[in-house]
Amino acid sequence: MDPSFLAISQLFQGAPSEGPSGHKPGKSAAESRELGLTAMNDGLYTVAIDHFKRVLEQSEEVTEADVLNLAGAYEAADQLPEAFRQYERAVRLKALPEAHLGLTDLYRRYGRYRDALEELQKAIDLSPQNAFHHYKLAETLKEIGERKKALVAIDLAVVNDPENSFYHYWKGDLLLKMKRPDDALKSFRAAIELSPGDDFLYLRAAVAFWLADRKADAIRSIRLSIELDPDKTIYNGLLAALLEANGQIEDAVHEQERADKMDSFDRAEARRVLVEMGLGDADLL
């Protein structure tokens, strides 16, 4: 008979009377599970690992959901080999999309993209209408430079969850990288209509407007970002730069006082955005 998880834990860590990592142990599988989930929410991943191990000890039957909890805790704690073993164990117990997604993320972290794509396809086959799975496929394909395939995948995410503003935004950003600003604007418009209070979306739309040679609209879009969050001086910096680039020198000077309050991080980020807009050679900040 193999030693139990608890016995192994006690062998290497001692046998504290208070339970996992000095924390009170659960008296039942349900209580240990709740303690583990609380520890995860609090960022106490090694504590969560101990509680989830105890769940498996206390349960009459090991379930794939509890194994997934343990795998997720190992992954969060950067104990990747252990996470691999638990995700694979969950797959053996029952073919669940979540287990394949967990393996996908681990394969990506190791740079094993072919294996990641295979696991993603298994997740999609199990739940073809789950938009998040298609988004994860798009994200992985983009990461390896397969932008056209990524566009097909994100389109399926949008089709399956058309009310999700993030998927429209992500598609718009991908289209920008594909040098298709006019198409990107359609996606950004959909994202903004679904989430009109998100100042960041207007910034991304401004990039697309500028690249589509709609400079006045780009400036208007940045002004809307400022209206939504006037405390973000990066928007004033970008507005001043765009006004100057568009020949509106007097208006640019008017914005400069606020722009000068940008910290080094915001200034670097503003420069990155200006480079994206084709203004990297101009001395605008």
What is the topological layout?
Layout: H1 5-13, H2 29-41, H3 45-58, H4 64-76, H5 80-93, H6 97-109, H7 113-126, H8 131-143, H9 147-160, H10 165-177, H11 181-194, H12 199-211, H13 215-228, H14 233-245, H15 249-259, H16 264-276
Describe this structure in words.
This protein is mostly helical and 285 residues long. The chain has 16 helices and no strands. The model is unreliable at 5-20 (pLDDT under 50).
Characteristics:
285 residues; mainly alpha; 16 helices; 73% helix; elongated
Using the alpha-carbon principal axes, give the shape. elongated
The end-to-end span amounts to: 69 Å
Helix content: over 70%
What's the total number of strands? 0
Low-pLDDT windows of residues: 5-20
Order of helices and strands: HHHHHHHHHHHHHHHH
Rg measurement, Å: 25 Å
In short:
The chain has 285 residues and is mainly α. It contains 16 helices and no strands. Helix 3 (45-58) runs antiparallel to helix 4 (64-76).
